[in-house]
Predict the 3D structure of the following.
Amino acid sequence: MNTMNNQQQANILPDEWTMILRPKRSLLDINLKELWQYRDLIMLFVKRDFVSKFKQTILGPLWFIIQPLLTTIMFTIIFGNIAGIPTNGIPKILFYMTGIVGWTYFSTCLNETSQTFIKNASIFGKVYFPRLALPISVVISNLVSFVIQFVFLLFFLAYFMIKGSNVSPNYLVLWIPFLVLLMAGLGLGFGIIISSLTTKYRDLTHLVTFGVTLWMYATPIIYPLSGIPEKYRIFVLANPMTAVVETFKTALLGVGQINYLHLLYSFCFTIVLLIVGVIIFNKVEKTFMDTV
Amino acid sequence: MQNVVIKLENVSKQYRLGNVGTGTLSHDLNRFFAKIAGRDDPAMKVGVANKLDTVDGRYVWALQDVNLEICDGEVLGIVGKNGAGKSTLLKLMSRVTSPTTGDIKIKGRIASLLEVGTGFHPELTGKENIYLNGAILGMTKKEITSKFDEIVEFSGVKKYVNTPVKRYSSGMYVRLAFAVAAHLEPEILIVDEVLAVGDAEFQKKAIGKMQSVSRSGRTVLFVSHNLTAVEQLCTKGILMQNGTLKMEGKVHDITSAYKQMSVDENELRRSGTRVIEFLDYKMSDLSGKTIDEVFLGDHFSVTANARSNEQIDICDMTLDIRNDSNEFIGHITNADDGFEIKNITKGKTIGLSVTVKNISFSPGTYYISLWLGNSYGTFDYIENCIRFTIKQGDKFIGRPFPFDKRAKTVLQSTWNFK
């Protein structure tokens, strides 16, 4: 009887559809609740990325460490020894590695999320799930590799401190979780905007790979911020990653410039970028199957 | 009063033809300027008849003004030719893409199965893929865990569940994928042609599973070209044609309308010099009544009228009979009977009639093609123009159980026991 009543009521009430699919939806119609319902899927994607990356490799997760290590050695030789770029008195290896570990997280997030639509077109064409689940899973699985690299970096740091080098990690390390969030947010934000645009304009895929490399040189990774002449510094500071990387280095190495105002700029930039990114992404995900 | 769970209101979907990757920027700007100037979008051609092959311009309507209501617990079969818009309809309902105009309203959790094994990763083990695929299809981890044993049991790959699926045979792969999908428990399930996988035994199992799903009171939407499967599973049907909803009704009415539609369209396949041409033709029983069904062992006649446009010395007529898999089953000609058609004067209409006795093809659907010609060439040839069904009766062979579909003819036999 009760169910009968419910059903009759269901027939009377016009607005109890679970969902209504319309051609045009408002820009802010973003269903974060649904994304939360699919959290299991996000975690399974993370697991998939992690497991599939190292299947049939001999060194397995060691590759997480080998990559930054080799890059560091390269940078030390080329920029440190041959070009002679100053490192503010910090041991060269440590200086470069700190920058690389921070930068790598941001850049892999950006590179991988920027391919969301194109790489997953075959899945997206067959089944619905909140499309944001994929870029978010990318950010999370890269966070795992970041943590491994970060721990590795801490070992180096400890080694140089024992050796008595001029490094002094300080209370700023408390900022690191926040910095990681900013890196993730910036990588994700830029990534999903690019991925949304690449569904129509493939030119961007070519731009991204070397664009990110160029961007690294515009960020104080291989040089200290203080090495930039005062009058050009404003350009470097316009880069939202500058304050993040500089604070990261200052926290761990004790040398560098930290300016809370710059950090606030990066924070606001990230928030705006994420909002814009999610809106664009949300708009594109509805019909991208027709253009991809 | 039944509860409507899916409602489509004037749903249309437009696709762009050609290579979308090039020239889109200028194209987009064009549309944008038209929009701010208040003109109609140049890309939209509303009201153009939807013919996929002769469309004018670079856009095509894959679906046009579809209105449909689906009630709770209904099992709806969707049939239609390739390109009729069936898959587009399913894609819209499963949220893979959005409609160009119109609203789709849905009540309840929906899961779609447009392909088996979506998101399977070759490097992951069977177990890992069950979880991943299940989650992609909308299950939570908890739900999958509770069904895990059942899924493995159903797929029959228990021994290999910890092996990467890239080492599976294609049959095992598909079985595992279908097993995951079959254990979804949404209120509305959308299935596209996925039963066409695996060997005969597995297909039987799959159809059985689908039947039990539909009996459990869930709403199922099912697209298939396999009309037998549609008739077995569905209660209601819709027929799609050129992007529009052509017909809606009981599943048997829909499938027979679809079969008829195939015949009607084949009628266009007519060739020959038309020195003499068919005017009409029909199939009848011996009393002359038009029929489209005969019982096994019965007799039937085919009567045709033809008009000659020139003087003809000699001419032959043949009937080719094919089954619904387009296999050539029987061939009859007037020469078999020592009968000659000759000396037809110009402008004369002749009536030809042939009677077939004791038809002994196994029960099923058959098509007759008519041919007029002689050793110099074809005058008129109409492919598959008569469709008829042979039914199992007790006149010829009183077999109580159905005939095996693989047997093409039925032989009369006499048995002795000593």
